[in-house]
Design brief:
The protein is of the alpha/beta class. 35% of the residues lie in helices and 25% in strands. It starts with a strand and ends with a strand.
Length: 313
């Protein structure tokens, strides 16, 4: 039986994805009921939800538990989850924890338990990511050209001047921990194991990292440059193999091609890829996939090398 904790993405993302994959009720705490009622696009799932008294009631009943909460909350909640004999599989949202150090501690606890675990990195399922991976792994060894990934956009918290955890590096947010972690996970899965440079720009308080640039290295693969700016007036997502005039992929954002497939009155366009994530978890053999270890290791190297420049204004 599937249970979901998380009244945001848990409701509009994971609930439709889980409903498409499994039969039977999906457990959610009663405190999300009002939020559910305020989302007419979720009405068709009303018969699938079994409302229970509390978060703990979900935790003590589910066999597969989806946790879509803030990274600090996930870190604090994990020991409780691992103590429940009923839970067989745990799906955690990205970033797994606030910092690489906390993520490594979570990994250690999970590997010492008898639970299976996965993390919500869905970029790996996107068509462009599969295309880039194939092209990259077929590239000429020792190619002197540097591949580039450039992602510029205006994050919701900057556009609306919001103060929330997604803006704060110290809470698991910002250009590296909230956005860059997607790309770090991809590169680690593609074979990148080292970082030769990493630099970030932050708001004057030092906690709001809005820009990040890094270069990654791997044996037998071309260097890979990443540039993410989450406070930009221009929206673009570009990947090229050193020929910037003829990019391998060009769009407004990483999910732009997917979002056009659903109109605004239907469920979140990411649900198709959350289905793939859940399906993978349901058939997962290894308790903790190697790619998650590799992603945390590369994330740790990024952060240990990153030089942060404060904005002058």
């Amino acid at each position: 039986m599937i249970g979901i904790l998380g009244g945001g993405f848990g409701l509009y993302g994971y609930l439709p994805a889980a409903s498409a994959l499994v039969e039977g009720p999906i457990l959610m705490p009663d405190r999300y009921r009002e939020k559910f009622r305020c989302k007419p696009e979720l009405e068709s799932f009303s018969e699938r939800v079994r409302w229970v008294d509390s978060d703990q009631a979900v935790i003590e009943t589910a066999t597969l538990l989806i946790v879509s909460k803030r990274p600090g909350d996930q870190f604090r909640l994990l020991p409780n989850l691992l103590a429940q004999s009923n839970i067989e599989t745990i799906i955690l949202e990205k970033p797994l924890a606030i910092s690489p150090k906390d993520a490594q501690r979570m990994q250690e606890l999970i590997e010492a338990s008898d639970k299976k675990c996965n993390v919500g990195f869905i970029f790996r399922f996107l068509p462009w990511a599969k295309l880039i991976k194939k092209r990259l792994l077929n590239s000429t060894n020792g190619d002197s050209k540097i591949w580039h990934l450039k992602w510029h956009f205006m994050a919701h918290h900057y556009e609306n001047n919001c103060s929330n955890w997604k803006r704060e590096h110290s809470q698991g947010g910002g250009a590296i921990r909230f956005y860059g972690i997607h790309v770090i996970a991809l590169l680690s899965e593609w074979g990148y194991i080292n970082v030769s440079s990493s630099a970030a720009e932050s708001e004057s308080n030092g906690d709001g990292i809005y820009s990040w640039r890094a270069i990654f290295k791997a044996p037998g693969l071309p260097d890979f440059s990443v540039e993410i700016v989450s406070k930009s007036d221009a929206n673009c997502f570009v990947v090229d193999d050193g020929n910037e005039n003829n990019p391998l992929y060009l769009s407004k954002d990483p999910m732009d091609a997917e979002s056009t497939r659903r109109d605004v009155f239907k469920i979140d366009y990411r649900c198709d890829y959350l289905e793939k994530l859940l399906d993978e978890a349901l058939t997962q053999i290894e308790p903790w996939p190697l790619r998650l270890t590799q992603a945390i290791d590369l994330w740790s190297k990024v952060e240990s090398l990153t030089a942060v420049k404060l904005a002058s204004i």
